[in-house]
Design a protein that fits this description.
homotetramer, mainly alpha, globular
């Protein structure tokens, strides 16, 4: 496993417009420019909290689906990162936006949240661990690409932007490393469990996942103000 | 298993407004009165075709999740009913609406289709067979209730209604029997695998499934004309 | 999919001695020569009945794990072949050996039955459908190879052999066709879902499954007389 | 959740002789008296290492099957306890017996190891989290009962017993607490997901799991010296 990630860029390229519709969704552009209405962001934050619970379930499933101890440990680290760190950080961050964990936990899941999370889990159970990780990649690796692209964009305004912390967290070195590790894992699994024959089916699942992630932004954007 | 079904009406009652928002959704009312735009119905038909594939997968999963041969046989009959009969009838019916199987199979799944089908499959894999059947009940048993209610409603117009065949199929004795059998199976499983302690969680899943089914109608209604 | 099956012979070759220890197990050789004690065969028949239930579950799981309708239909046919035909034939055949279905259903599963069946199901859930079918292949395709090899062997005695019917069923054209179809499906799936990178892991699972099948014969052989 | 565990003792009582055949297996009695041949213990240690990998997979599956964050965290703690602590301790301990991790990892799984671990995973996937935890209970809670019973038994010889460390670890307060927590979790889940209707099926699975655990001891006892 050396050099640049190879599978992820191929999948993103194959998704074409669908990938750009997700990574450059108006929700993201408005977030970067600071123009996103706060109600949209709050709605997104609540659903992202509910999303994280199923994200942790997906990595628990990956522990089960592992063939080797090192694979198990990587999945376990992501369960722990989600349950011990991310959910905690998210809850702290949301408190700053006036959202308590109790309030978020009692909100119903939006259809867009259900659609993406359950699609991922079904890919993971119907397929193997590579199918699972490919369905998760638009989220894990995609967020890193989105944030990096935005902080380097001329239209982005960091000074005085109330969403700056969000952008800088995902553009920051820690998250970028995590995403790079996830992209490298895709290559490692594609070499060991894949082969070109699988590419069309993986590309279809990746594109569907990207489409469902775009719907997730759209759900935020359409939040009642 | 004698007498009236018990669990299904309790679940529907617990879902309250959510249940009525699904069973008396404008899509259904307009279908019964004949006022539903054809584009809406066509969009629904295409997505229902894609839905049936995952419905068959759910009953395949139920075969795996069976404890006893009679349970397996019932699940197998529903796989066969879906793959051998329902999909075939659906394809024939859709041909009458100008939709070929090839065309339907190449359409992307709508988010509403993904959300409901994958929610059901996840309930089935995270939980046991009772969880799976409860998540399927708003569809199987619900369609029977919807059609029976509509054909007995004064606002329904059967004569000259281009959707009459659809209504009469689900209101007809064959489908009503199938739904009654599904409701009876819920009681049998609740007795054998359940207990009152499970009711709150089953009711929550049932209500979510009903909400996602209402979204499915809504997707039809919002189809571009 | 034309020409000879390719993946199955490679897997059998890679399993080497393990494969021969299964396909030429003393149980099989004694069955072919007619020397197998009846108590051994009866014990095998009972456990094979219990095995078939989990075999049907495995094909139900394959319905769930299918990507395409034609894949679903093939899995469905195998669920039906097992539940509607094989179990029925098996029950009829066992009656001739003085074993009633009720008696067989109330026997505890032998550890060897549990080990093989649950290993297959775990491969199927941890991996994808190719993993599942590879774990099933020593059974489905292996039985055809075993019976064909035995009926063509000089040491085999058909005349007056009380196990003749068993040998001729698996050596017969109907079962041989089913096995050939299963071997062809492996190739089709390896082309579409595989790649050389997967071979080592598939070969390991195949060899383990063959070892567990040999244990299944051994369990028969060790039955108390 | 107050007072004494209730479900676990009922399950053990229902298993009757099967439970005693496991908890008072000759392997355990000889281990307590110090008479167990070292080859038997070494074989057990190697297979227990392979067992722990699937034990961690089972708790990863439990993360996926959780309904609530607190349930997820408990499963996550058990994944971590297994992968970060138990496997490490086991590897250290085995080194003292001349067994390296590399050597253990390259041993084939014994049929008894496969039978118990895959039975547990299948119960967990076919059923719900209560089914999974009940199948695990003979291991987690059983080991605590076995060790406590042995250290309080007159026939046990701790002084000069080369297996003393093993006995004292499982009889020690830390492991006893973990087992009590696991038994309490069974009650909590039986209240929330259960009901008397489930008891017969849970009792059957528990007894099968206990039987497979007894086979695991037997495999150790039969190790070639």
């Amino acid at each position: 496993m050396t050099g640049q990630p190879a599978l992820f860029p191929r999948l993103a390229e194959a998704a074409g417009e669908v990938w750009r519709a997700y990574t450059r969704h108006p929700f993201v552009l408005q977030l970067a420019s600071g123009d996103l209405p706060e109600a949209c962001f709050r709605h997104y934050l609540v659903q992202d909290y509910l999303f994280l619970i199923h994200f942790a379930r997906a990595w628990g499933l990956a522990v089960y689906k592992s063939d080797r101890i090192d694979e198990m440990r990587r999945a376990q680290r992501l369960v722990a990162a989600t349950l011990d760190v991310e959910i905690g950080l998210h809850v702290d961050y949301c408190r700053g936006w006036g959202l308590s964990e109790t309030a978020m936990a009692s909100e119903p899941e939006a259809p867009a949240t259900i659609a993406y999370t359950r699609f991922v889990l079904d890919r993971g159970l119907a397929g193997d661990r590579l199918d699972l990780e490919v369905a998760l990649a638009p989220c894990i690796v995609g967020y890193a690409e989105i944030a990096a692209e935005r902080v380097n964009d001329a239209a982005t305004r960091l000074a005085g932007n109330r969403y700056r912390e969000w952008l800088e967290m995902y553009a920051g070195p820690e998250y970028q490393d995590l995403a790079r590790e996830a992209a490298a894992a895709l290559d490692e699994q594609f070499a060991r469990r894949g082969g070109e024959g699988r590419f069309p089916s993986l590309a279809t699942a990746f594109a569907t996942a990207a489409r469902l992630e775009a719907d997730f932004w759209q759900m935020g954007l359409e939040a009642k103000r």
